[in-house]
């Protein structure tokens, strides 16, 4: 082999090695856990959230330097998040959690029809009931503490979910992706709006995320302990909210299918963890229901198999695809779609599609039902940002082509030198030392050409990288400018009247005898959990037709058909005393004002509720008193 051929081969080997450095780093970073990944790899700051070229705040780098500091920061953020919530979202955040807990701890509170028919489990409310008891023992069970403390507890649960998203995304990809995924979750308006509310969906989301981290993924080194943790958390999520089974039907089936060689040992864990957790839940429910019942089965039977959930509203099959999912994702849907396109691992996407498909088959649909799949969605957002912010790789084919062109040109020059034309003055019999000099010049020229090409490619690489970073920064700024104001508006302003009216009634109850009638859609306001006063209260019920009566009309619908006639039938035509306070939306003011004035009522308060009134919900909450 000639010297110039040897030199070219050496250059090709060197450039091939340089071209695959990132690939080799990627392969070595595929650890079975984030901690193992740290041990295997030195810290690489490329495309990290705290990279100086991306966002750069040193405080972010310090927070993310360890899992403990990150978790502490997440708890602080979520507690602040929880304390900012001053509005109502859905009735379940009160009536299926803290209202029941208040009844468990203090002996008074309202339990809706679900609790009288064994459709709800006492596990989730028990968390708040325990803390209510502790506050009572410490003499700190005032109204403010009873409202804020459950939110703080839920904030800590949400922080656990955030941390496990970080660990899960790191496990499925790398640390940079995990940081971006966490950033996307922490800046999503719907997660900021809902994750610290006392909803079973919020707790379900955190538990499902933790269970997915312990899930025996194919590339993960699985231990028996991690399998037990996964199954325990999966079972716990189903106990908190039975619809979590939708996700676990798919994931557990995949787990069993990929572990056929260890099927007996795997099934042993399933048959051990599942029945034990179910038995513990049944024992807790036995204490409060007074009889043995399986609330998870009752819940699924009524809401899913029996279609009872449709009593509270229905939507078309495509609602989650056209409205539900795009709305809760907001602008994050753009990096999500781009992340899917770049991702190699499509299993989390399959979970997302499966969950949306199953929920789309159910008539009753709500935004919050999709919360458990949001962390997986933000993982794909993180993949997009991580890929977009790292330096693009040099094009190996272009470099090889340049080397080949250089070699070809050198060979042509050698042919001209060794085979001169008839008119040439160069002798065909050159000394050997001249040939050596020629090959040395060719090698030097080749190296200079290689350096020049590499420098040009590096300049192009840096230019593309800077352009990507600039666009990523613009997208991050745009996400913040849209999501943060939306969060503040929905958390502090939208639908706040039904919360503020409870403070008004609480203060009034100390000044005079108070009994209240809420003439609003059922469960529009919190109840005793926000009043902490054992006064007489009544609201319009909206129970489904449990007794299968013909021409059944619930109390709320009967009232709204003719409000004045309903009041006459309840009070004027009977000996029942009128309540001291009536609470209703201003959408009824024109119909009720004259009749209430005739019966001695006057407007005592008008509280702003929303800029977006619709249907039976008005823009203000009116309190009439006598």
UniProtKB/TrEMBL annotation:
<feature type="transmembrane region" description="Helical">
    <location>
        <begin position="230"/>
        <end position="250"/>
    </location>
</feature>
<dbReference type="GO" id="GO:0005789">
    <property type="term" value="C:endoplasmic reticulum membrane"/>
</dbReference>
<feature type="transmembrane region" description="Helical">
    <location>
        <begin position="122"/>
        <end position="140"/>
    </location>
</feature>
<feature type="transmembrane region" description="Helical">
    <location>
        <begin position="369"/>
        <end position="389"/>
    </location>
</feature>
<keyword id="KW-0808">Transferase</keyword>
<feature type="transmembrane region" description="Helical">
    <location>
        <begin position="347"/>
        <end position="363"/>
    </location>
</feature>
<feature type="transmembrane region" description="Helical">
    <location>
        <begin position="474"/>
        <end position="493"/>
    </location>
</feature>
<feature type="transmembrane region" description="Helical">
    <location>
        <begin position="317"/>
        <end position="340"/>
    </location>
</feature>
<keyword id="KW-0472">Membrane</keyword>
<dbReference type="InterPro" id="IPR005599">
    <property type="entry name" value="GPI_mannosylTrfase"/>
</dbReference>
<feature type="transmembrane region" description="Helical">
    <location>
        <begin position="70"/>
        <end position="89"/>
    </location>
</feature>
<keyword id="KW-0812">Transmembrane</keyword>
<keyword id="KW-0256">Endoplasmic reticulum</keyword>
<dbReference type="Pfam" id="PF03901">
    <property type="entry name" value="Glyco_transf_22"/>
</dbReference>
<keyword id="KW-0328">Glycosyltransferase</keyword>
<dbReference type="GO" id="GO:0006506">
    <property type="term" value="P:GPI anchor biosynthetic process"/>
</dbReference>
<comment type="similarity">
    <text>Belongs to the glycosyltransferase 22 family.</text>
</comment>
<protein>
    <recommendedName>
        <fullName>Mannosyltransferase</fullName>
        <ecNumber>2.4.1.-</ecNumber>
    </recommendedName>
</protein>
<dbReference type="GO" id="GO:0000026">
    <property type="term" value="F:alpha-1,2-mannosyltransferase activity"/>
</dbReference>
<feature type="region of interest" description="Disordered">
    <location>
        <begin position="420"/>
        <end position="452"/>
    </location>
</feature>
<keyword id="KW-1133">Transmembrane helix</keyword>
